[in-house]
Design a protein that fits this description.
Layout (H helix, E strand, L loop, with lengths): L7 H22 L2 H8 L3 H8 L2 H11 L13 H10 L3 H20 L1 H28 L13 H16 L5 H16 L2
Helix pairs in contact: 1-2, 1-4, 1-6, 4-7, 5-9, 6-7, 8-9
């Protein structure tokens, strides 16, 4: 691919426009024509750089999340989780949650989007979380045989979905912090 011809600034500008359009119109109504018009680029350039709308959208989302959980290492599980939660401000969490809500509907009808989302966003996050948890096991903070270890990702995703669904509130830092203390850590035996 000829991706290197774009400057990092231009790529960031394109990704920002994609995320703005995604929030405004949702995945299904987002078109390469709309991205091209918003960014003053050609549709052919967009397809040459990203190959598909699904890949462009997922790469834009990935660029929006520069912190990787496997790089967090404060020396304690609580510190690592606090670092994860405090990385993004509440306003950004609300925007990201709105994006994900819109994408989850589209994923069911679009196998390309589902595959790109899994490969580029979900699997790296899950793998990063596993690294973080394994370090906690190695330090003796979590029992290696804790049955909850394989469900931490489910618990965290559940926090995001349930807060909005049950309380009609975004999952802000305060909620996530207390949720981790009240649900995730006890389940892990911490």
């Amino acid at each position: 691919m000829a991706r290197s011809r774009l400057t990092p600034e231009r790529e960031a500008e394109l990704y920002g426009a994609v995320l703005d359009l995604l929030r405004e119109v949702g995945y299904d109504a987002l078109t390469m024509d709309a991205v091209a018009a918003r960014t003053h680029s050609s549709k052919a350039t967009l397809y040459r750089q990203w190959g598909s709308k699904a890949e462009l959208v997922v790469r834009a989302m990935r660029s929006n999340k520069p912190l990787q959980s496997d790089r967090i290492d404060t020396g304690s599980l609580r510190g690592d989780f606090l670092a994860m939660v405090s990385h993004t401000d509440d306003c950004q969490v609300e925007k990201d949650t709105a994006l994900m809500r819109g994408l989850f509907h589209a994923v069911h009808d679009n196998p390309d989007l589902h595959q790109a989302l899994r490969e580029l966003l979900i699997e790296p996050e899950i793998n990063g979380l596993h690294v973080l948890l394994q370090r906690a096991v190695d330090r003796g903070e979590i029992p290696a045989d804790s049955p909850a270890l394989k469900y931490v990702t489910h618990m965290l995703v559940g926090a995001f979905v349930a807060r909005q669904l049950i309380e009609d509130l975004p999952p802000d830092q305060a909620f996530l912090g207390t949720y981790i203390d009240a649900v995730v850590f006890p389940a892990l035996g911490v």
